[in-house]
Description:
This protein is α+β, with helices and mostly antiparallel strands. It folds into 2 domains: 3-30 and 285-487, no CATH class; 38-282, Beta-galactosidase, Chain A, domain 5. The chain contains 12 helices and 16 strands. It has a 16-stranded antiparallel β-sheet that branches. A hairpin with a 2-residue loop joins strand 2 (82-86) and strand 3 (89-93). Helix 5 packs parallel to helix 12 (462-487).
Amino acid sequence: MEKDQKNALLAVVLSAIVLVGWQFLNPEKQPTTFTPNQENVAAPVVAGQQSQQSKDGPQLNTTSTSNTADVPVVADLAVSEEWISSAGWSFKFKSDLSFEILQSPMAADKANIIFGEKTFFKVDLGNKQLKYQLVKKSEEEFQIQSSDGTSGFTISLSKDFIKFSNFFPISPKFAFLTDNTFEISSTVKKFIYLAEGYNQFDASKTEATQGVMQWIGLDFQYHFYGLVFPTKTFVQFQGANYGLNVAPKIDKNDQVLFGFFTKDYERLKNLGFNLHRTIDFGMFSFLAIPILWLLKKLFFIGENYGLAIILLTLLIRLITFPLQFSSLKGMKRMQKLQPEIQKLKERFKDDPASMQKETMELFKRHKVNPLSGCLPLLLQMPVFFALYSVLYNSVELLHAPFYFWIHDLSLKDPFYVLPALMTASMFFQQKITPSTITDKTQQKIMLFMPLIFGFFMKDLPSGLNLYILVSTCAGIGQQFFVFNRIKS
């Protein structure tokens, strides 16, 4: 096999490896539905009354040990379990001196979609020798106190965070509770944390680390469950079989925030604490962020993100058209020289150095730059990679309908119409694109590229397929325009 044939085959193999790797790292998201878990819908606890969920357990101690008569002791954690639903949060305080967060105001049904009926977050009070009580200060503030007053902390609620503060000598242990069902689930992505920089590791791996961190949590494509440390805090954590245990080094003046966050870039940036960095746009984030801003602006034209994707793709194609024009002109000139280049290959087949020299002389005589076709294309790539990253990570596409059979742009096309059209358009574009390949075998190999690409794109979000389809069709139109200009 000639060297050029080997290179072409190697290009196909490497492309397939990249596409397989992308498919493996970004598996299909399955459509999810939510059926409310009746156990998780708790009524607010009223002082002096037993909660509905704990009606079979011991009676609550409603005799306050506090000096303030209007502050009720809601539950004696050493002898009972108690449910609290307040300010959009749902808690379960348990007799093993721990409490679990089952729902947050931002999570709504998402917690149950992702975690099923299981608890997704737990705090261990760390000292089972003491008797603890849950004291309700207001609808937004609770305290967990030991009966001797030596340990405990305050819980403050808001729509964005639950804040743990005013720590006594205990050091609670925080845990994200997951299980091995995530091995076959497509929703969980990884554990991520921000120390000196953004870090991540697979949710299925066992890994331990420590350091001064801003936040740490369980990351999903469109959501993030995390602990946030307003003042960077020394943290030790251990990941083990789809669970993550976190032990911050806490003193009385520290605070720990817990939240469930929809990964809306602007909102996370406004919340602070570098939470916007939970969205990983990759190395071209400096381009991805303005592209995301533009996508949101275009949404208001037709109130449809599918239409916004089309407009955004066409706009970027228009902006990069000068580069595309230069690239196609260069490729066309190179194509015209192929017969002469082939003659030089045959003439100097046993003398590569002379062939290279004569080829460069040929380019000089015809004033052709061999990189004129590739360089403009390379300059476009960062823009298209950034756009691809935006569409893959954009929560705006979650549950966003397009038209006809596309009801959710974040999910795959259920009938594979868009991938099929995308593959056909890429095949047609390849047929009309000027090629410097004269070997028949190489040409046949290259014809398989759209098919391979289409196969690995078929299960990716339909928004991505729509973008590539529109971009390819726009590219075909640009090619016809350029070729007509060159002929004239």
